[in-house]
Amino acid sequence: MNRPRRLKWQYPAIAVVAAGAVSFGLMHASATPAAAAKKKPGATERIKNDPPPTLFTDAQVASLAKQQAAQKHTADALFARWKAAHGSTRDDKAFSAWAAQQVPAPPNKADRTTELHQVQELAKTRTAAGKKAATWLETHGKGDIWKLYAHDRRELLPQEQGAVEKTELKTALKLAKAITEKVAARDKQPAPYVLDPSLRPDKHLKAGQKGPYSYPSRHAAKAAAAVTLLGDWSPHRAEDYKAMAAQVVYSRLYMAGHVNSDITAGTLVGDLVGDYFQNAAAPSAASK
Predict the structure, then answer these.
(1) Minimal CA–CA distance to 115: which of 257, 246, 264, 261?
(2) Within 13 Å, how many C-alpha atoms sit on residue 233's CB side?
C-alpha cells in the first residue's frame, strides 16, 4: 500500500464527515431551537468550524508509528497479567491503580536532558505549515478526532449499539486521562517548554514555574486507547486510526509539549486502557 497516497484522502475525510454530520443536525435544528441554542458544540461541530490543515508526512511520523506499534506488544503482555487475575470483570478503580504502577519511572536526568536536546533540535526545523498542523492536532487530538471517527461509524449502526460505543469511548478517554494525571503528579517531570521557555513563548510561564508535568503524555494515552477500541470496532480502518495517532503524538514533540519518553509512557497507558475495555464485561459494583 502506498501510505502517502492513503493519507491524502484520510485527513480531508475528517472534515467531510464533520460537515455532513453537522448538516444533518442543522436540518433538524428548527424543530427544537431552544435545545439547539443551549447545547455545547460537540466534536463534529468543533472540527467543522476548524477543519484540518495539511498534516505531517508519513516520513516525519514513521519512527513514532513504529514506536507505538512496539509499545502495544509491551502493553498486551502486561495486560495478560491483569486478565489472568481479574478475568473480564470491570473494576475501574483497581485497574487505574494497577495501570499507574505499570508505568516505569521516568528517565534519569541525563537521559531526559538528551531528550530535551532532541526536542530543541526539532524545534529548529519548524515551519509555518508545520506549526499550523501541530496546533490543530494539539487542539483536537485529545478527544475530538476520536469522537468524530466514532460518530462516523455510528451513522451506520443501530442506535442502541452506537450509544453503547459512544459511552465506552468517552469512558475510556476519561480513564486514560485520570491515569496519566496520577502518574504525572507522582513523577513531576516538567514539560520541555517549562525547562526551556523559548520553545513555546506563547505559554507565558511564570518565573520559577515547575509545571505542567509532561510524563506521561495525555494526548498519547487517549490516542492509544481510542485506536484500540476503534480498531476493534472497525478493523478495516485500523491503519487509518494508527496513522492519525502517530500524527497526534508527533505534534507534541514538534511543539515541545513532550519529550519522547513522555510519548512512550502515555502510549503504554492508553494501550492498557484499550485492552481493558476491549476485554471487559459490564462494570462491577466496585467500579462504580
Answers:
(1) 261
(2) 24
